[in-house]
Amino acid sequence: MAPRGSQRTVNKIVAENRKARFNYEIIDTYEAGLQLTGTEVKSLREGKANIAESYASDEGDEIWLINSHLPEYLQANRFNHEPRRRRKLLLNKREINRLRQAINREGMTLVPLKIYFNEKGRAKLELALAKGKKLHDKRETEKERDWNRQKSRLLKTGG
Fold it and tell me: Which stretches of sequence are listed as region Disordered (predicted)?
């Protein structure tokens, strides 16, 4: 029999929001826990999740993940969860206050970057404090990415 610790997935990325780094300038990142039901965890372990259109919102003394999609777990018939329900993020009070201050005073946005399982097998969300990019900033990012790609090709071929 294999040791119990070897069965867990270590830092397995379940869902990633790749467009967020293009649309937003990432200022700071936080690791937050997710308050999930059992069927949501099982659905995540299957690798089915979508956070491309989701965002985090400050309501009361809590921060919520809104519009994330975790599909229903097929084997859980009537005890299933609602796929697009709001999910509470588990953060320290100090972190919540810091994020709330940045959102209200500086006009920043909370953008989820990825959902993954940590070493202990817990579902975590990488949350970014971000500022939206303007169109010309996006063009500049794209030009820089193209130039780096072209430069690496030239170095490979030696020309």
Answer: 134-159
Please compute the mean of the pLDDT values over residues 8-21 and round it to a whole number.
78
Q: Residue 103: left (phi > 0), alpha (psi -120 to 50), or beta? A: alpha
Domain of 128, in residue numbers: 11-132
Query: At 46, which CATH number?
Result: 2.40.280.10
In a domain, 112, yes or no: yes
pTM to 2 decimal places: 0.75
- Rounded Cα distance between 58 and 100, Å, is 7
pLDDT in tens, 27-56: 999 999 988 888 888 888 888 888 888 888
Distance CA 106, CA 92 (A): 21
